[in-house]
Each structure stands twice: as structure tokens, then as C-alpha cells.
């Protein structure tokens, strides 16, 4: 597990997200004693997120403050190998599908979510997901046509791209009149929801983190996806962080372990089993001296 902070020494651990207009890609061997390679490109906008390609080991997507999405080859200097500009405000997240590996999704402060293929010059689908900033959009690791989102409006939403309303073709992929109907809306918080993640082992189970400092686990397995539904059962509610929860991620190895990163400068590991034999909070990492903004 790697946590990202604003501390300069820690920004070297992953391809760099930088608000100082520099894209830096740094590679380390298993030991962090020696840099294998480093590439950088001076740009005029902040970077809010990145995602490694599921197909090409050297390709990385970045989400930009100027509303663009760029695809980089980390073995090449300077220019991105592809760029798209459709969002009208900052792009806050990008995510590759781990099932349809040639497809990725983006979310923006303009309230839209867009689905893309890197060989297409334009997005293949636009969702008017929320009326305000969409902090994150993620493909389900279990069903390739499900996308979850979280927003400043305090909700999580699930969109099913198999719905006839989302079929591709004339009149169904309008960039001026984007589609908006979610199959499920979860009223997750009275404050902004900053982050979410799908559980890797339990389909239709998600976790959310919000400005109200709460971490919650949502069980949506009993909700029948169809016409717009409102629901979802809060399986676990995990208080403990002192400030907003900025990022969370389920363990890829254990169905009940969840990592969180917060503006309180701590990272925490939780056991999410309801009424389990162990206390929910397993570990607190408090070595950071600045906001913790990411984890992997």
C-alpha cells in the first residue's frame, strides 16, 4: 500500500500528480534505492488524477485542471501521445476498465462523466451524472457496464450502460444533451462525498469517504437495478478521522480490509466486517506532515 502526500520526498513513489504544472513519471525497482527512469514535461495546468493503462505497460492517463485528458508514454519525453478536450471544467478523475481494457471513464467539476476509447477522437458516451462536481467515477471490477460516481451533492450513483437509454447510435450519444438517469442513487452523506471504491470480492458493495469525516460501506446487492432507484444499505459506518476523508481503497487481497487517507494527515486500515471479532480500526499511520491525498 502506497499513500500520497504533498511532502516532496513522497511524490517520487508514483507517477506524479503536481499542482505546480509539471508532469513527472518516475520508476523504481523493488528497492527504492535507485531510480530506473524519470520523465518530465512542463505543462500549464494542475493534474488531479492518473491511471495506468490496463493494456500498455508504459501508458498513463492524466486528468487535468484545464479540462483535458492526456495519454502519456512514460518512455517518451515532452509531448503527450494523445489528448482530449471536452469537459468544460477541471477533470478530477480517470479510470480504466479492468474488464474492457480499452475503455476509460473520466469525471469533472462540470458535473459530467464521459466514457472514452483511446483510439477515438471524441468520447463515446456522456452522462450528466450530477448537477455539481463529480469527484470520482469508477468502472465496476465485476460488471463492465456499471459505473459508480460520487459528488458534492452527497450522493453515490450507479449507471448501467446496458440500459436502452445508453445504447450507442444516432440520437443516443448527444454531447449537447447528455444522458442523466442513474439506476441507483445512494444518499450517502449530508456533506460532499470525495471518494468511493468498489469492493474487489463482493459485487455491488462500495465504500465512500466524505467531508463529514465518515467512512461508510454500502451493500447494494438487494437493490434491483432498473428504473431509477434510491436505496442502498449502510453496512458499516466508521468514524475516526478528524478531517475529511480524501481517498479510500479496498484491499486487492482481503474482502474486509479498507485503507483510507485523510486531510488529518493520517492513513488508516479498517476491518469492515460488521460486528466482527476484531475492532474496526486496525492501524493508524501518522508519519505524514501534510494532507494525504491518495493511496494505492
From TrEMBL:
<dbReference type="InterPro" id="IPR020472">
    <property type="entry name" value="WD40_PAC1"/>
</dbReference>
<protein>
    <recommendedName>
        <fullName>Peroxin-7</fullName>
    </recommendedName>
</protein>
<keyword id="KW-0653">Protein transport</keyword>
<keyword id="KW-0813">Transport</keyword>
<dbReference type="InterPro" id="IPR001680">
    <property type="entry name" value="WD40_rpt"/>
</dbReference>
<keyword id="KW-0963">Cytoplasm</keyword>
<keyword id="KW-0677">Repeat</keyword>
<dbReference type="GO" id="GO:0016558">
    <property type="term" value="P:protein import into peroxisome matrix"/>
</dbReference>
<keyword id="KW-0853">WD repeat</keyword>
<dbReference type="GO" id="GO:0005053">
    <property type="term" value="F:peroxisome matrix targeting signal-2 binding"/>
</dbReference>
<feature type="repeat" description="WD">
    <location>
        <begin position="127"/>
        <end position="163"/>
    </location>
</feature>
<dbReference type="InterPro" id="IPR044536">
    <property type="entry name" value="PEX7"/>
</dbReference>
<dbReference type="Pfam" id="PF00400">
    <property type="entry name" value="WD40"/>
</dbReference>
<feature type="repeat" description="WD">
    <location>
        <begin position="84"/>
        <end position="126"/>
    </location>
</feature>
<dbReference type="InterPro" id="IPR036322">
    <property type="entry name" value="WD40_repeat_dom_sf"/>
</dbReference>
<feature type="repeat" description="WD">
    <location>
        <begin position="60"/>
        <end position="74"/>
    </location>
</feature>
<feature type="repeat" description="WD">
    <location>
        <begin position="238"/>
        <end position="271"/>
    </location>
</feature>
<keyword id="KW-0576">Peroxisome</keyword>
<dbReference type="InterPro" id="IPR019775">
    <property type="entry name" value="WD40_repeat_CS"/>
</dbReference>
<dbReference type="GO" id="GO:0005829">
    <property type="term" value="C:cytosol"/>
</dbReference>
<dbReference type="GO" id="GO:0005782">
    <property type="term" value="C:peroxisomal matrix"/>
</dbReference>
<feature type="repeat" description="WD">
    <location>
        <begin position="186"/>
        <end position="219"/>
    </location>
</feature>
<comment type="similarity">
    <text>Belongs to the WD repeat peroxin-7 family.</text>
</comment>
<dbReference type="InterPro" id="IPR015943">
    <property type="entry name" value="WD40/YVTN_repeat-like_dom_sf"/>
</dbReference>
Amino acid at each position: 500500500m502506497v499513500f500520497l502526500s504533498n511532502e516532496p520526498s513522497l511524490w517520487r513513489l508514483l507517477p506524479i500528480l503536481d499542482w505546480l504544472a509539471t508532469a513527472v513519471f518516475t520508476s523504481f525497482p523493488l528497492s527504492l534505492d535507485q531510480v530506473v527512469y524519470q520523465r518530465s514535461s512542463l505543462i500549464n495546468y494542475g493534474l488531479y488524477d492518473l491511471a495506468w493503462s490496463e493494456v500498455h505497460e508504459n501508458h498513463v492517463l492524466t486528468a487535468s485542471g484545464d479540462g483535458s485528458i492526456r495519454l502519456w508514454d512514460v518512455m517518451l519525453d515532452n509531448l503527450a501521445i494523445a489528448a482530449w478536450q471536452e469537459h468544460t471544467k477541471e477533470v478530477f478523475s480517470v479510470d480504466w476498465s479492468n474488464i474492457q481494457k480499452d475503455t476509460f471513464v473520466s469525471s469533472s467539476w462540470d458535473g459530467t462523466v464521459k466514457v472514452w476509447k483511446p483510439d477515438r477522437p471524441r468520447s463515446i458516451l456522456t452522462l450528466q451524472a450530477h448537477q455539481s462536481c463529480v469527484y470520482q467515477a469508477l468502472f465496476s471490477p465485476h460488471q463492465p457496464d456499471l459505473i459508480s460516481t460520487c459528488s458534492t451533492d452527497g450522493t453515490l450513483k450507479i449507471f448501467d450502460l446496458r440500459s436502452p437509454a445508453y445504447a450507442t447510435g444516432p440520437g443516443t450519444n448527444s454531447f449537447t444533451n447528455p444522458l442523466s438517469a442513474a439506476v441507483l442513487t445512494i444518499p450517502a452523506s449530508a456533506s460532499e462525498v470525495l471518494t468511493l471504491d468498489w469492493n474487489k470480492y463482493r459485487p455491488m458493495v462500495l465504500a465512500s469517504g466524505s467531508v463529514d469525516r465518515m467512512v461508510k460501506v454500502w451493500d447494494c446487492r438487494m437493490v434491483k437495478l432498473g428504473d431509477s432507484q434510491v436505496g442502498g444499505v449502510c453496512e458499516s459506518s466508521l468514524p475516526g478521522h478528524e478531517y475529511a476523508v480524501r481517498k479510500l481503497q479496498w484491499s486487492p487481497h482481503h474482502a474486509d480490509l479498507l485503507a483510507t487517507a485523510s486531510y488529518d494527515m493520517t492513513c488508516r486500515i479498517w476491518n469492515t466486517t460488521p460486528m466482527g471479532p476484531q475492532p474496526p480500526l486496525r492501524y493508524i499511520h501518522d508519519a505524514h506532515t501534510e494532507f494525504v491525498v491518495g493511496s494505492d
